[in-house]
Amino acid sequence: MAKVSIIMGSDSDLEVMSKAAKILEEFEIEYEIKIISAHRQPDVLLEYMANLEERGFAVVIAGAGKAAALPGMCAALTPLPVIGIPMKTSDLGGVDSLYSIVQMPSGVPVATVAIGGALNAGILAAKIIGVSDKSVMDKVKKYAADLKDEVNAKGEKLKQLGYKAYLEQK
Known about the structure:
This protein is an alpha/beta fold.
């Protein structure tokens, strides 16, 4: 089965990035997590990205804050799809990261999720893999159906209790 590479520039991103790992585990997709700084370790990044495809990886999830160069550098170094996760920063709340990742030059695309959106990055990676792996796509479909059921149940509960009682139970 195809694997997902999860890369972050700092261990301070690990809490957010672990959400991608957790959902990939639910979908039973193998992944690898690395800390590689695009600015401080360009040689390490170059070496790591060089053989991902040959090692069975299908998607890269890269999280970065501030200058947020990591997702773009990954996209420049591999033909694999790259999903960028902008990290919330103390300076500008992550908007700086978002703009940096989403504004890639033509020819070097990075799919970008919301600030801190590692869960969605993991789901998107599963959907990409699911295009060629029916068992993964079946899990993605079940996940979506479970979400729908969860929302339907909340709607029914609200209808039965009324909004005041519903809020008191939360």
